[in-house]
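## retry 2 of 3
previous attempt timed out at serialization; input unchanged, resubmitting
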Amino acid sequence: MVTVKIWGSLKEAAGGRSELRVEAANIRQLLQRLGADYPRLQP
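## retry succeeded, writing output
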């Protein structure tokens, strides 16, 4: 489990949340899951 800190204008894209907890084994998986759960955060 990874805790991602969100700040600035990205916070709006994360539904106003400043922290997101994501189950991921590596960076690729983390970015994929963030994009799936929060499409506006897709790289």
